[in-house]
Design goal:
288 residues, alpha+beta, D-amino Acid Aminotransferase, Chain A, domain 1, D-amino Acid Aminotransferase, Chain A, domain 2, 2 domains, 9-stranded mixed β-sheet, 6-stranded antiparallel β-sheet, 8 helices, 15 strands, 31% helix, binds 4'-deoxy-4'-aminopyridoxal-5'-phosphate
């Protein structure tokens, strides 16, 4: 079946969608994006994703081309056209087409693109065994809170883990955990679930928020505080979270077992709570 995408006002087959080579997304990576999971045709945490898109746009000084209602109807139409229950909705906004000059062109229309992508939650085997991760120095810029399409550092860092046969690269800046190349990172220290507080050094993860909400609602001890590298290495559990990975346990870090080398008890609990919450949202019993 043909994939129908949205591009600048049109819904058309992906093969026919074209962006001019003078688009600043292509020339400079000058744009931002979002990935929104859709379960049973319902976008998960849509308003939160659109709020983060708005913050990313503001952060790169690009006026949001659409209000919330317009984004809602565009995403609804892409979901309807896709005819699949579960999707990852990729939204990209670039500064648009103009002469190649670093400075913003005076009058320019942003390029707006929405692509429905297949979404498959992690295989049950990965949830059961956990995954391996490696660490690397976080050599990205200092606005990692903006979800920009300039992803080359993340691409190179992620490839390090592929080369090492691992699932993710966990990043350390100035001796402290920041996040993964494409995920947020939690650790368990002395029975407490800990993740770095939001800052310009990491993306404010939507799944990160869900994990803290669930932990707090169920009386699980948790804290947002800086995580020194030595705590990362001494943690009894390490988790990766993202909209597409959901929650995965890291059971080997740089080749060393994390805890007893199996997903921990708190992982099992938060993973179950997350699945239950997701299904509640899918059944429409909770605002998404
Ligand atoms: N950090 C980075 C660098 C990411 O790319 C992602 C994935 N979007 C995340 C964290 C997790 O964010 P979310 O839970 O909103 O998917």
């Amino acid at each position: 079946m043909t994939t129908i995408v949205y591009l600048n006002g049109d819904f058309l087959p992906v093969e026919q969608a074209r962006v001019p080579v003078m688009d600043r997304g292509f020339l400079f990576g000058d744009g931002v994006y979002e990935v929104i999971p859709v379960y049973d045709r319902r976008p998960f945490r849509l308003e939160e994703h659109l709020a983060r898109l708005d913050a990313s746009l503001a952060g790169i000084r690009l006026t949001n081309p659409h209000d919330l209602a317009a984004w809602r109807s565009l995403t609804e139409r892409v979901i309807a056209e896709a005819g699949q229950d579960d999707l990852g909705l990729y939204i990209q906004v670039t500064r648009g087409v103009g002469a190649r000059d670093h400075a913003f062109p005076a009058r320019i229309q942003p390029t707006v693109f929405i692509l429905p992508m297949p979404l498959s939650p992690p295989a049950p085997g990965l949830v059961a065994t956990g995954v391996g991760a490696i660490t690397a120095v976080d050599n990205r810029w200092l606005r990692c809170d903006l979800k920009t399409i300039s992803l080359l550092p993340n691409v190179l860092l992620r490839q390090l883990s592929v080369d090492a046969g691992s699932a993710e690269t966990i990043l350390i800046r100035d001796g402290f955990l920041t996040e993964g190349s494409a995920s947020s990172v939690f650790v368990v220290m002395d029975g407490v679930i800990v993740a770095p507080p939001k800052s310009e050094r990491m993306l404010p993860g939507i799944t990160y928020d869900v994990v803290f909400e669930l932990a707090e609602a169920h009386g699980m001890a948790c804290a947002r505080r800086p995580v020194p590298e030595r705590e990362l290495r001494a943690a009894t559990e390490i988790w990766l979270t993202s909209s597409t990975k959901e929650i995965l346990a890291v059971t080997r870090l740089d080749g060393q077992a994390v805890g007893d080398g199996r997903p921990g008890a708190l992982f099992a609990r938060i993973h179950a709570l997350y699945q239950a919450y997701k299904h509640t949202v899918m059944r429409g019993n909770e605002p998404s």
